[in-house]
Amino acid sequence: MKQFEPYRLDAANSRLWRDEAQIVLPPKPFAVLKYLVDNPGRLITHNELLDSLWPETYVQPQVLRTYVLELRKALGDDADNPRFIQTLPKRGYCFVAPVTEWHGTERASENGKTSRHDEPAGFVNRTEELARLEGELARVTSGERRVLFLAGEAGMGKTALVDAFCRRARKARPASLARGQCVPGVGSRENYYPILEALTQLCASPEGESACRILARTAPAWLAHTGQAPSADAAAMERTIADLCTALECLAAEQPLILVLEDLHWADGATLDAIAALARRRAPTKLMIVATYRPRSEAMESPLKRLKQDLLLHKLGEENLLAPLNRLSMAELLSAQLAQKTLPLGLAEFVHRRSEGNPLFAIAIVEHLIAQRALVRKGENGSAEWELRAPLEQAQGSVPEGLVQMVELEIDRLSSEQQRVLEAGSLMPVAFPAWAVAAALACDEAEAEEMCDGLARRLHFLERAGEDELPGGERSAFYAFAHQLYREVLYRRQAAPRRAQRHVRIAERLGQLFRGREADVAREMATHFEAAGSRQRAVQALRAAAQHAANRQAHAEAAELRERALGIEIREAVATGKGNRDEKQGPQDERRGRRDELAAVRNRTAMRADLPTKT
Fold first, then answer.
1. Is residue 259 within 8 Å of 287, Cβ to Cβ?
2. Do the Cβ atoms of 494 and 515 come closer than 8 Å?
């Protein structure tokens, strides 16, 4: 078994593990990863991969891009700063992580199962993050001020982690706690809003009397804004950062003061200036600032990004990034949510796949399954265990209303032009290239790429995933939604006629880009034509590709393409409901003939044992 960083590749059983959690990969992406891991540190060309994994079978080279993108998502890898898979443009890929043989060194727990951590009760898979926070608090207790940035996308559990840390900190030692929340839009109207909220909360706490005395002595103008019976003179005084710093240092002189400022990506400039000043002062104090934020929010193009980089550069702050939950942790989360140790078969994997490890999304999906009566309790008294009453596949395309509203709120903050760009990108199933956006919107490709780049820098749910070389030699960037639910919501926002028009434009542009080689992209063209309701054009594209495959003696591929074309024709006939039985006899005869043709192709394929199956 091969090991690289926290991952283990079990080639014998075709499994990938991260610590004790299995990561399920489809066969072909797993095969790509295995080949790369078996050949670390050297260039693996596109042709070498294709020849090794699909011998004697024609496969579009573009499929490798999709598989590598899927692998990067599973491994948490970054194309711009790769830890595992490095892309060498126009050449291939290189596996850059050290690979060693694994011999099974996990520590066994008392019940015989391997365990890397003893997770706190009721808190899932955040032991390492808690340990880091507690380690920083230990430094604060010795008189060293610390600033901790806690980064994570919406729903990743930043607040839950802070809650757990604060509970443990207060339980382990005497400590004061003040928490403030940044609110979108408020920062532009009121300076220091989260700090004032935190001070107000501190003054109303059990140690509030002492806090008010210190504020009255060191920062009376700040005390006036907490509503703690300020004098008229104090209310008229100017709030200064120097007074605030002095007051917080006095509050943290005897015991640690934990100042939590949440959603700092919405903070006003004055609040960020106050954090910078607090971080740079030299006086000994037991002050710990914990600031949460979304790492890929629009605000990260603003002073927040500069503040964070400056403090990290000068060793005045630390940053922790919350990763998605793995499958094992997801199962633990669902068990806690449903108060049930043994989960219905397939539920944890389904929710993990749909939520992509986001705890908030996972809980919303479970609540949606319950509301849809797909997940119900056994028995009549409502106290028995949960069970599945409907196949999970039926809920595959269903998006929980709560998540739809959350995504809609984020999208509504964008301009109409930005919304159109994202909607156009949602027409592609995995990653979308800039040329497809340009085709869908009938605009200039360079302009479309600039708009996509701008959105990828500003939005936490969109990322630039790399570049692709088009048949003419031009290069086009492609992008991916951080979560499939965003793509689904954006797709459904579009009116059906407009969506159909955009699908047709993308299909036609594919044909133009691959003129003379249309068979190479026939499947993609057919998918867009069918989504647009243009089934005849989809059938034409598939039959042309099938003929091309037959000419290359790729009989299995030809059979698969013809079968798909036949399926579209049948759906078209059912949808249109043409005529009575006599009127349908002609089309039925034609379809019967095509089925006979398809059966003959399959028989020929079965007789050729040396032909590989088309993937």
1. yes
2. no
Bridge pairing between strands 287-293 and 257-262: parallel
User: Cβ distance 247 to 274 under 8 Å?
Assistant: no
101, with CB counted inside 10 A (0-12, 13-18, 19+), is exposed
Q: Residue 268: how many CB atoms within 10 A of its CB?
A: 20
The neighbouring-strand residues paired with 52 are: none
State the pLDDT at residue 499: 94
Strand partners, 290: 148, 260
Three-state secondary structure along 546-572?
A: HHHHHHCCCHHHHHHHHHHHHHHHHHH
Q: What average pLDDT does the segment 557-575 reach?
A: 85
Residue 8, strand partner residues: 3, 17
Q: How far apart are CA 332 and CA 341, in angstroms?
A: 8
pLDDT tens-digit series, residues 356-410: 888 888 888 888 888 888 888 876 554 578 888 877 776 666 677 777 887 888 8
* Pair 117, 329: CB distance under 8 Å: no
**Nearest-10 crossing angle of helices 434-441, 416-425:** 120
Distances (CA, A) of 51 to 46, 48, 54, 56, 117: 9, 5, 5, 8, 43
For residues 238-243, average pLDDT: 89
Edge-to-edge strand ranges of the sheet holding 462-469: 431-433, 475-481, 462-469
Structural fold of domain 127-321: Rossmann fold (3.40.50)
Contact (CB, 8 A) for 28 and 67: yes
Angstrom distances, CA of residue 168 to CA of 120, 134, 175, 179, 272: 10, 9, 11, 16, 27
pLDDT of residue 599: 52
In this structure, what are the phi and psi dihedrals at residue 479, rounded to the nearest 5 degrees? -135, 160
The CATH class given to the 2-101 domain equals mainly alpha
Extents of the domains making up the chain: 2-101, 127-321, 327-398, 403-607
Residue 585 has pLDDT above 90, yes or no: no
Burial class of residue 111 (count of CB atoms within 10 Å of its CB; 0-12, 13-18, 19+): exposed
Which stretch of 206-215, 222-231, 259-268, 282-291 has the lowest confidence by average pLDDT?
Answer: 222-231
Bridge-based pairing of strands 85-88 and 92-95 is antiparallel
- For residue 433, what are the β-bridge partners? 478
Q: What is the pTM of this model?
A: 0.61
- Asked whether residue 341 carries a pLDDT value surpassing 50, the answer given is yes
